[in-house]
Write a structure and sequence with these properties.
Elements (H helix, E strand, L loop, with lengths): L3 H29 L2 E9 L9 E6 L5 E5 L5 E7 L2 E8 L5 E9 L4 E3 L2 E3 L7 E4 L13 E6 H6 L17 E2 L29 E2 L8 E4 L2 E2 L1 H5 L9 E8 L15 E7 L7 E10 L18 E13 L1 E2 L3 E2 L4 E15 L9 H4 L17 E2 L7 E2 L15 H10 L20 E15 L2 E2 L3 E9 L1
Parallel strand pairs: 1-7, 1-8, 6-9, 13-16
Antiparallel strand pairs: 1-4, 2-3, 2-5, 5-6, 10-15, 11-12, 13-14, 15-16, 17-18, 18-21, 19-20, 21-24, 22-23, 24-25, 24-26
Length: about 450
């Protein structure tokens, strides 16, 4: 038996392991998903200004990062989450220069040079940042997909991977495994039935050569299926193409592209959304390849959800404004569709043993015996009128068929032999929940859980 002290030591070891993983996850995120801002501080003549104070502020959370330029005037901010930032620089004998708000994307290195004018530090000169920040420090090529694009563009199922093909060098190649044998989703794990998605091929490589990340962590599950993080929980998605001899060290062993997703975190203001996307029979036309009497094939698809985030606030205990934030998102998906394919099923009379509508004679297998007139061959007695006695019908098998197959519908073909049933109905229910927290400048990785789709 183990002593209580030994069990306690195991517990402390396990707790230490969890803490180590949580602490190291931020560094992993910093290396793979975080952005950076760099530049040079100069005076009006173009000479470098050393020891200039440079402050970078997150507009949404008011969290500030401070640094000082070196003798060559260079400054750099590392490990920055995507978002909206403002930049300010000042030095003794020079007026303060402010760079208006600009957007920093996932894994982007923005280069912003600052020119200070001679004057009092109390003087403030504000300039507008460029719409697109140039990345002159790396050879990476990529495209950023923001939440607004996913919300505004018509995407069946709101799966952002449909937008990956807008990136130069990306082709929406699909292979047999992507269909998962006709089941929901990709070849590894199910996603919502009816939702569109792609597994892209980047720069001529196979679609199995890509690298998928979520908040800086390897998301290999997306390689096998697709991202399950709700659209409202994603801040930015960056698709980077990899070319020969230009790979960054942190993306080693990647032949294709890097799909890098960063989730949202809360801000100093409480914000929430509620939404629903609807598709149903009202908007559909009748399938021209089925009988007109069937009308429009019933179809219903409801995708809905909500999100909420802001500073952590516990009355009389804790005020997390400017310090601690949270973000939560939920997405539900309900799908019901009749299959247009018609199926043949036995009628109630056939299940009772009346096979008279069958065009050929059927025989009693229990009467099989050698044929005396033809040695080596066998004969059987026919069922008179193709009527099977009730004593030879297993009621358990009849019950099984009645459970598995729906009742036969009206006879639709010309010879009156083949009864056709109404199309079977496919129903799916799935739910996805994501949440993240952020303290000061550090953000814990977003966790996302999806209830396995229920298909019937």
């Amino acid at each position: 038996m183990y002593s209580s002290k030994k069990w306690a030591s195991y517990g402390f070891s396990f707790l230490a392991l969890i803490i180590t993983v949580l602490l190291s996850s931020d560094s992993a995120k910093a290396q793979l998903s975080a952005g950076s801002v760099t530049g040079i501080v100069r005076d009006a003549s173009g000479s470098a200004i050393g020891d200039a104070s440079v402050t970078l502020r997150n507009v949404d959370t008011t969290i500030e990062h401070k640094t000082v330029s070196n003798d060559a005037g260079n400054y750099v901010f590392l490990n920055l989450g995507p978002g909206k930032y403002a930049l300010e620089a000042t030095a003794p004998g020079f007026a303060t220069k402010r760079v208006a708000e600009f957007i920093l994307a996932v894994n982007q290195t923005a280069s912003i040079d600052i020119s200070l004018q001679v004057g009092s530090q109390s003087e403030v000169v504000t300039i507008s940042a460029e719409t697109e920040q140039l990345d002159v420090s790396t050879a990476d090529l990529g495209t950023v997909i923001a939440t607004k694009q996913v919300n505004d563009l018509p995407l069946n199922g709101r799966n952002f991977t449909q937008l990956l093909s807008l990136t130069p060098g990306v082709a929406p190649v699909s292979v047999a495994q992507n269909a998962m044998g006709g089941r929901a989703g990709g070849f590894g794990a199910p996603i919502s039935v009816g939702s569109a998605f792609i597994f892209p091929a980047v720069n001529g490589q196979t679609n199995r050569s890509n690298f998928f990340l979520t908040d800086g962590l390897n998301n290999f599950g997306s390689f096998q299926s697709t991202y399950s993080v709700p659209a409202d929980c994603r801040r930015h998605t960056r698709v980077q193409g990899r070319f020969t001899h230009t790979d960054s060290a942190q993306f080693g062993s990647v032949l294709g592209g890097v799909v890098n997703v960063v989730t949202k975190s809360g801000t100093n203001e409480y914000h929430g959304t509620a939404w629903e996307y609807v598709r149903n029979t009202v908007f559909d036309a009748r399938n021209p390849f089925i009988p007109a009497s069937r009308g429009v094939t019933p179809f219903r698809q409801n995708q809905f959800g909500a999100s909420f985030g802001g500073p952590v606030w516990i009355p009389k205990l804790y005020n997390g404004k400017n310090k601690t934030f949270f973000y939560f998102a939920y997405q539900g998906f309900r799908y019901t569709q009749n299959n247009d394919a018609v199926l043949k099923v036995p009628t109630a009379a056939q299940l009772a043993g009346d096979e008279s509508s069958f065009p050929t004679q059927i025989y009693n297998p229990f009467t099989t015996r050698p044929d005396p007139a033809n040695p080596g061959k066998f004969i059987r007695d026919p069922f008179p009128g193709n009527q099977i006695p009730s004593t030879l019908i297993d009621p358990r098998m009849v019950a099984f068929i009645q459970t598995v197959l729906p009742p036969a519908g009206p006879v639709l073909d010309g010879n009156g032999i083949t009864p056709l049933i109404a199309p079977p109905i496919t129903r799916l229910r799935t739910s996805t929940t994501s949440a993240s927290t952020k303290t000061s400048a550090k953000k814990t990785p977003c966790f996302s859980g999806t209830v396995p789709p229920t298909v019937c």
